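Objective 1b. Sequence-to-structure analysis of RNA polymerase sigma factor.
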Amino acid sequence: MKPDSHQLPGNAIDAQSSQSPERVAGLIHHVAQKDRQAFALLYQATAPKLLGTVLRILRDRAWADDVIQDTYLKIWQRAEQFQYGKSSPITWLVSIARNSAIDELRKHPAGRTTNSDELDEMPGRQSTAQEQLEDQRAANKLNHCIDQLEKDRQDMVRLAYLNGWSREELASQFEQPVNTIKTWLHRALKQIKRCLES
């Protein structure tokens, strides 16, 4: 059944308006009422942007695709929590995607593990079991120390040093001046260093 203008905001065929804040907010409102058609339209209108956000964090397309699936499941479950006056709909959706990606990064700081077939096909430079164990211990210790930081500082450090985000990108993401970001990162690194040395 095609949506009429009372069911969904805008024209489903109009690609230009499909990402307007009003339309996306309207779709989220319908998704909160468990409207599957609105959910499909919301996915169509916003998935490229959310995938871009996740891909920038994880830098692995297959992994990002998995996280996007998880993100839209969360959107389906939490749509009723969205409040149009508090934030723009795209900002709300992007924050769910970003947090899902950062949670994945926290669970797998060295990246997602490949399966044994892929490992067999990799060229010779195999590390020894001892080296792998030491690398894992170092990663676990670093992760533990990062987890001691405030939540937004944790995310900032992971994006900056594990994913190579620039200070400008971080400033935009966290809505802070570049100099503030530099100061926060400097303090966070000192705290991590103290933790690693303890």
